Amino acid sequence: MFSKKLGLALVTVMFFLATAAFIMGKPPHKDARIYPIVSKYAPFVVENGLGGLKIKRKDDPNFKEEPDAVNFYKRLQFLEQEWAKNHLQLKGMELLIMDNNQSIIKRVPLNTQSEKRFVIEYYGVGK
Which residue from 10, 36, 86, 103 has the fewest beta carbons nearer than 10 Å? Predict the structure, then answer.
């Protein structure tokens, strides 16, 4: 009933789609030193639930997003960039983390140009 060519074509298409979904859903690179420091002050928390990953806010119990697996990390990065517009500032080789009143709560020295590039590219700060 099915020819071998049709079966091979279906397997090839399924493999291609699975690979494309994996590549699209891959999280962006996060600096191993800077990202954990900033995430302590960012209001977003990632939780693992039965339905998949969820994004919640520490300061708003009503906020909960459950983007699909392909768009999850893009949505998280977008939310972190929106937060960073008002809470992160880049001054030379130093990252300033501020609270809602624009008071500096943490100064993070950037040791390398790679760390500075990460802050600019991931958070959109200093563009």
Answer: 103
